[in-house]
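Shipment paperwork, digital attachment
Item: protein structure file
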Amino acid sequence: NEKKESKKNNYFTILSNSYVYPNKRVDLIAEVISKIDANINWYHIGDAAYNEEHFKNLKDFSAHVLGCKKNINYYLLGRLSNKNVGDFLKTQKIDLFINLSLSEGIPVTFMEAFAVGIPVLATNVGGVNEIINEKNGILIDKNLNTYQISKLILNFINKDEKEIEQYRSNAFQQWEQNYNASKNYQKFVKNLK
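Attachment content:
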């Protein structure tokens, strides 16, 4: 099947966006990606929250686990302004947003990903399950190991294009219905009258 073959040669693009410190487990993302048998582009936005060593350690660890992988490109972009993050999300084709935090509130980065139709894989901690479900992403147990997580990502990569488009559409709908500020503000004002 020619279409399937062309998909195989393309790169699947993963984005993570968070500060780099132990709770965010960005090093675990690098390790998970190193175990995926597919062509991957991984972009990470964000640098150290309060200790520059954390970002330096991520760079060193990523070079160690990903540097020799011919099928994986990775880009540690550091801190970007909100405008630059928005521009990046609008101009890059991102296939999956990933967050493996040990704890979370209700992450704004998930809403930003949904706003441009990017499905999210995230740990089921804090308020994450109020946003992520099986229709718009992948909700995982925070205790899964790197092999289990990489297998879930590979399963997602291997879904057919229609199914992935449905995830993208559902992600956008989740944002549109629940997090689109201008729309919700108009609803709020209407309810006041």
